[in-house]
# Entry
Amino acid sequence: MSLEPENGVIRAKENTDNKHYLHSKWVLWFLKGDRQRSWEECLKKVAVLETVEDFWGLYNNIQPASGLTWGSDYYLFREGIKPMWEDPSNIKGGRWLTIIERTKRAERLDVCWLELMMALIGEQFTQVEDDICGAVVNVRQKGDKVALWTRDGTNDDTNITIGHTMRDKLSMSDSESLRYEIHKDASTRTSSIVKPRLLLPDKPKRDNSATPTPKVPTAVSS
# Structure
């Protein structure tokens, strides 16, 4: 496993070394919150993942998300993109976010995080994969968060497609919500709540005088 990115492009995928090369390189980062240090000082690069073998070799030898202490994060981002709002690839983007309820933590947290990582490295977001920057899991006492970051927070059509795929990969039920938040809104928020731009699944308003409205994704006005 390479612990630092190599210069140049990934060598031709001829499988001459019997390894299964990923379409893109991915970097796993780890952060443990510490009020005595800056956020960037707490952020550590764990490994650069170039092959399927790299991924499983790493995953099987680190703590699962459920084993991390409160205030810890994992980030899986494309090589060249740092897991921070200020990065040029993230600054105009946003994130799809779901919160794992405490009562479902044991059965959902590790499964959701693993499924999302495999969907990323396997390029399973067909035709919109280039719009995805990375994924995050935040381990918190009030509720763990699993998120997927995208490049353009205003591209609703693409983000809705990504959101539906994420819901499918995480096997989310209709009772589990997925919200899309703009990074800029989150960075300037004045409370713990950020108004979402998009919601999935959309819950149409009741209208007793008409046929029920079909469920369609809705852009929430800013």
Q: What stands out?
A: The beta strands are 21-32, 43-51, 72-78, 94-100, 132-139, 144-150, 178-182, 198-200, 218-219. The two ends are 44 Å apart (CA to CA). The domain at 21-199 is CATH 3.30.760.10 (RNA Cap, Translation Initiation Factor Eif4e).
